[in-house]
Amino acid sequence: MLRLATRGSPLALWQARHVAGLLQAAHPGLQVELLPVATAGDRAVEVPVWEMGGRGVFVGEVQAAVLAGRAEAAVHSAKDLQPIEAPGLCLAATPERGDPRDALVGCCLSELRPGSVVATGSQRRRAQLAALQPGLVFESLRGNIATRLERVPAGGAAVVAAAALGRLGLSPQPMEVLGIDVMLPQVAQGAIAVECRADDDGTRALVLRLDDAATRAAVDAERAFLAFVGGGCDLPVAAHATLLAGGRLRLEALLAAPDGSAVVRRSAEAPAGDRLVLGREVGEAVLAGGGDKLLASYRSRR
Hints:
Layout: E1 2-7, H1 10-26, E2 32-37, H2 40-43, H3 60-67, E3 73-77, E4 89-93, E5 102-105, E6 117-119, H4 123-132, E7 137-139, H5 145-150, E8 157-161, H6 162-167, E9 175-178, E10 192-197, H7 201-208, H8 213-229, E11 237-243, E12 248-256, E13 263-271, H9 275-301
Helix pairs in contact: 8-9
């Protein structure tokens, strides 16, 4: 028996069941049980994520269940994790990544005009959309995917993760999936993370069979960038890595002013084996290109 701790939202349960299925396919006869856990982010549904401290508000209680021995592993949306592994835990596997892109629901990007209302709970999305179309009006958006789709502003749009829509079998119309060149995703968006206790060699060996090399290389590079710049859900920061032919990894990342008035976007390539170095290199380029001033200005207002 392997117990998987997870949030109780429909998307989180889908992801946990997906991981359970992968585990059972890799280890015939293995029994897997889900342990739903409520998190701080689930309880404070009306508070913007960045006001609660950003990354980590959807994972703390789930991780605690593993550390306490109530579950052997935890399943998360990888984008919700802090960029540094939690004490006592390890990121044991990242199964093959889903669509990392963002989706605009309610209208297409070209239809947004100054004064159009866009609902999103993400500083990253707000900053990039504001840079693309000055004059947009933003309103907060929290809750599960179904709730968010019910709150699409009249004549405006809501922004959600394309992977979430795909995993839940939803295809709201009108909808436009935004290209990476238009809207750079959140770090590790579309990826699933499986954590276990760092000293639990047995569980770690079972879960390791699910690790997808290309996904792991990309997620590691993106998280290394985030760790270097020191950002989270409360900061307009984004990154996306792609494994290229020949085993090279390309990482593109940005740091923006919250109002979109400035966006510093940089990219670089390196062998996939040097992904942590690549994350730091792109972080250094972003800060040197003006990101350091944006970061200092942002933190001085907090």
